[in-house]
Amino acid sequence: MTDTAAAQGRHLPADLPEQIQHYIDGSFVDSVDGDTFEVLDPVSNETYLRAAAGKKADVDAAVAAARRAFTDGPWPRMLPRERSRVLHKIADIVESRDTRLAELESFDSGLPITQALGQARRAAENFRFFADLIVAQADDTYKVPGRQVNYVNRKPIGVAGLITPWNTPFMLESWKLGPALATGNTVVLKPAEFTPLSASLWAGIFEEAGLPPGVFNLVNGLGEDAGDALVKHPDVPLISFTGESSTGELIFGNAAPYLKGLSMELGGKSPAVVFADADLDAAIDATIFGVFSLNGERCTAGSRILVQREVYDEFVERYAAQAERVVVGYPHEERTEVGALVHPEHYDKVMSYIELGKTEGRLVAGGGRPDGFDTGNFVAPTVFADVPPDARIFQEEIFGPVVAITPFDTEEEALELANGVRYGLAAYIWTNDLKRAHNVAQAVEAGMVWLNSNNVRDLRTPFGGVKASGLGHEGGYRSIDFYTDQQAVHITLGAVHNPTFGKGDR
């Protein structure tokens, strides 16, 4: 592709900022030391702005503001209905600006515009969901008639540190901000350094909705600087993190001396198990979407497909042919199904796995750059067949449009393959045998299982994984549990039933 063609493919949204600052105590501010870092767009890999590079001093200022807002401000003391009104306003504003949000998200992350639009709408729904939930929730009460009443108070905990990833960043920020704010906490958000653009919009949205100053604070920066300082800060009792398992391990260790509450949604290498009796048309469509949507940069991607031997050859042939027809294109074009990976560092990682895969499996689709895209972080949807279970592309999270297909003969072998990795986030089971579907779902080591279904989730259900895929669950009341302390209050109604000490003869 010529430089002119590349320039034509780079769609610049109107009114792009030239810099992004922190947002602390209701004001936009530079870093204390004035440091910044470059932010690239994934189509050209050119710098389009510089963002303030937060360090310990910036995190200290943000936490101090959040702490003041928690101890002295009105937010934790407002009635649930009052906080709910603010959250609904936030949802209304996000919804009204979904086109602009999607345009910025697509430009910054490389996500196809149609998929970015869905994420913006989901962000609004997250706020609306928790706005309703805090008004409708009922806390536990236990009675022993005539003797005792026991009830539970839910209280906000304090300053929540939220560390978010670069894949679908705006939506995943809303997934943490919604319940943290709904329950009366104050927050410090540290967005991913690759994709700070959409996060910078939260401040204006919150101000317009009437969120008090200091309740929301944002510090940009590198994980090893700003993220590390947030995790280690003694006045931040909660850390919610979404990202790589290796980073989660560091956070776990760094938070341990402070006994912080942790919620960590980590990596995945999720299996899609296709039995011979499955509806192959539906299974192929779902597993194509499951690994190639969101550019393959999704934690729940079904990146290992296990197919029963009787239909294996047919499945591989049809799957590879359909993968070749997936439309790779510029993120802003509506026909695009796979856009550009987020950053050249990640592009290099994914391409290194593709080269490795050529030595570990049989390449049946993709395998490099798509035709006509000589610049930018574009990867053709790539399919490897006959992948052995000890292969690195079978075992390790690639986080791109790359899938490994492996045959199996029996249900027992399918489970052994499905469970034979360190991860356990999601699993997808395709079969028309009702007993098998439920038995395999019970036996598979995954926090979430979909039976004859794509990744469609009710917001009331728990989201989280097992093994190296996470610690704790969020979603519905699980999020309320994480962001609140539950205080049990016990009341005696009748005679006080105390053992009597110290009244006997000596």
Structure summary:
This protein is an alpha/beta fold.
Name its key features.
16 helices, alpha/beta, six-stranded mixed beta sheet
Outline the structure in words:
The chain has 506 residues and is of the alpha/beta class. 38% of the residues lie in helices and 20% in strands. The protein is built from 16 helices and 23 strands. The strands form six sheets. It has a seven-stranded mixed sheet, sandwiched between helices. It has a six-stranded mixed sheet with strand order 10-9-8-11-12-22, sandwiched between helices. Strand 19, helix 15 and strand 20 form a beta-alpha-beta unit. It is globular and about 85 Å long. It starts with a helix and ends in a 14-residue tail after the last strand. The N terminus is likely disordered.
Secondary structure tally, helices: 16
> Helix- and strand-based class?
alpha/beta
Major sheet characteristics: 7 strands, mixed
Shape: globular
Rg, Cα atoms, Å: 25 Å
Q: What is the helix fraction of residues, given as a range?
A: 25-40%
Task: Please specify the SSE layout and strand pairing.
Layout: H1 3-9, E1 19-20, E2 22-24, E3 27-29, E4 36-40, E5 47-52, H2 56-71, H3 80-96, H4 98-109, H5 113-136, E6 141-144, E7 148-156, E8 159-163, H6 169-182, E9 186-190, H7 202-209, E10 216-218, H8 223-232, E11 238-242, H9 245-255, E12 261-265, E13 271-274, H10 280-292, E14 304-308, H11 309-325, H12 344-360, E15 362-365, E16 382-385, H13 392-395, E17 402-408, H14 411-418, E18 423-424, E19 426-430, H15 434-443, E20 448-451, E21 466-467, E22 470-471, H16 477-482, E23 484-492
Parallel strand pairs: 1-5, 8-9, 8-11, 9-10, 11-12, 13-14, 13-19, 14-17, 16-17, 19-20
Antiparallel strand pairs: 2-3, 4-5, 6-7, 7-23, 12-22, 15-16, 18-21
